Amino acid sequence: MIRRSAHIGVFALLIVVMSMTVCCKHGAANKPLLVDSVVVDTSTVVGKNNGAHYHLSLNIKTLADSTYRGLNIALIDSLLTPNIVDLYDTVSISPRERIEQYIKSNFAAYKAFYGTVYAEEPQNGTASTDYNLTTAMEYNDDGIVNYTGTVESVQNGQTTTYTTALNINLEQRRILSLSDVVPNPSDEKFIGDIVKHLCKQVGANDQASLESAGYFTHTPPYAPENFILGSNTITFIYIPGEIADREKGEIRVSISR
């Protein structure tokens, strides 16, 4: 009879909260942006022998002012997409507590999956996962805060790197969507501008030759919600595998606003 159990050990856990000041660019806002940083380095192992190893490293910046608590939680959830949104209070919770909840939920799911795998088939060898997230936050010249998270994910030796971008309106205490910036993000002319600039980047003549080069072969061209808002430009970010083969990596396309 196969025993469905696994040993899980957390052999390193460090959560540090640091405060810092991010200076404004000229003409952006009247005062510096006060920022906290939650730094986490933790690992877990499933199985006594040759078990699955999961290392999680986070450096997440949040707004230091307590009046932005709800916005901070929205930022964390947008970056980490935890399965705990409906399970925990999101009004009075702190960013550090939210991140701790994410780690607990994430490790529990990891243990449940790989615990069964290695209890039944320990001969499968070792699964190794490293997930590293580092964030940055700064004003653009319009006073909008650009918030970016750079992820390096290594699974069984295969590395994937990509960026998640959010744009914050501090006065409204919310994350901007693309429709807040562009009246009609699906407009044919707007999408055509993205295609035109991507063609220039990769040396294609038109959409047909762009598809021949391996872009937008499985989906029509579109503008993603993953973008960095500049004073005069919008930079769209497509993560590896989103619109082309994963080997092409992250793809960025900048167009005029």
Report on the biggest sheet: 7 strands, mixed
**Helical content (DSSP H or I, runs of 4+):** 10-25%
Physical arrangement of strands within the biggest beta sheet: 1-2-3-4-5-6-7
Return the structural class.
alpha+beta
Annotation field: number of helices: 5
Q: Which radius of gyration do the C-alpha atoms yield?
A: 21 Å
What's the overall geometry? flat
β-sheet strand percentage = 35-45%
Q: List unreliable stretches of 5+ residues.
A: 1-12
Number of strands: 10
Mean pLDDT comes to 84
Distance between the termini: 64 Å
Q: SSE string, helix = H, strand = E?
A: EEEHHEEEEHHHEEE
Short descriptors:
257 residues; alpha+beta; three-stranded antiparallel β-sheet
How would the blueprint of this fold be written?
Layout lengths: L7 E15 L10 E14 L5 E12 L5 H12 L14 H26 L7 E12 L5 E11 L2 E12 L4 E2 L2 H4 L6 H15 L4 H6 L14 E3 L3 E6 L12 E6 L1
Parallel strand pairs: 3-4
Antiparallel strand pairs: 1-2, 2-3, 4-5, 5-6, 6-7, 8-9, 9-10
Helix pairs in contact: 1-2
Task: Explain how this protein is built.
This protein is α+β, with helices and mostly antiparallel strands. The chain is built from 5 helices and 10 strands; from the N terminus they run βββααββββαααβββ. The chain has a 7-stranded mixed sheet with strand order 1-2-3-4-5-6-7, covered by helices on one side. It has a 3-stranded antiparallel sheet with strand order 8-9-10. A hairpin with a 5-residue loop joins strand 2 and strand 3. The chain starts with 7 loop residues before the first strand and ends with a strand.
